[in-house]
Write a structure and sequence with these properties.
Helix content is 72%, strand content 0%. With 213 residues, it is mainly α. Helix 1 packs across helix 2 (40-47), helix 4 (61-84) packs antiparallel against helix 5 (93-108) and helix 5 (93-108) packs across helix 10 (193-211). The two termini are 25 Å apart. The relative contact order is 0.13.
């Protein structure tokens, strides 16, 4: 079996070019120095715009930080949506779930996503409202897409699932194995491909033991 692509393709999003330029600069600086040590002057310089231009798009540094994290959450959600939106239930369900699980896990292990969750964890105490916002726009929206994917297999007759929402969460968490926490702690096996395949294979086995029709 071929190893999953470590950098899944993201769907393009439409946005103001200047806003994207500012967010690109903010992303770099926030990742390097965190919220506290970052200044709007640094972000403006990195983005190649004036400080006034930054304030034309964002009220203050906090608003810019929330926008940066929200953009990261949206990227995760949209990546999964693009992956599954047109995935029809064809072939063997085990092989289909294996392929989806490998792509999901490769996405969760992408350094950009890992860095996003590290940054979020470090700042949630400072901005309590961020936790719910990012959960709703990221994982919760992602689970909804996976729920719809599993529903199609259920309607196809390959799965028998009473609570699709819970099954979607269970599938994702089974696919995580111990690799997601390993990546966050910097002890991920290298290369990760074989570990991804093996972890997802175990996840699919357990999932189908519970839900195969």
């Amino acid at each position: 079996m071929s190893h999953p692509d470590p950098s899944p393709r993201l769907c393009p999003q439409e946005a103001s070019p200047k806003r994207l330029q500012i967010l690109a600069g903010a992303r770099e600086v926030f990742r390097e120095t965190g919220f506290e040590r970052t200044s709007v002057d640094q972000i403006a310089a990195r983005a190649g715009v004036s400080k006034a231009t930054v304030y034309n798009h964002f009220h203050d540094k906090k608003a810019l930080y929330v926008a940066y994290l929200s953009e990261e959450a949206d990227t995760l959600r949209d990546s999964v949506r693009c992956m599954l939106l047109r995935s029809e239930p064809v072939g063997e369900v085990a092989a289909a779930l294996q392929a989806v699980g490998e792509r999901l896990l490769a996405l969760f292990l992408d350094p950009t996503i890992v860095g996003f969750y590290r940054n979020t964890s470090a700042e949630v105490e400072r901005f309590p409202e961020l936790g719910q916002l990012l959960f709703d726009r990221g994982p919760a929206a992602m689970y909804a897409v996976i729920t719809d994917y599993l529903r199609r297999w259920h309607e196809h007759g390959a799965l028998r699932i009473t609570d699709l929402d819970s099954a979607a969460v269970q599938f994702v968490m089974l696919c995580h194995g111990d690799l997601v926490v390993r990546s966050q702690l910097g002890v991920l096996p290298e290369p990760p491909g074989p570990a991804i395949v093996a972890t997802v294979r175990g996840a699919v086995t357990v999932f189908l033991a519970a839900y195969a029709a």
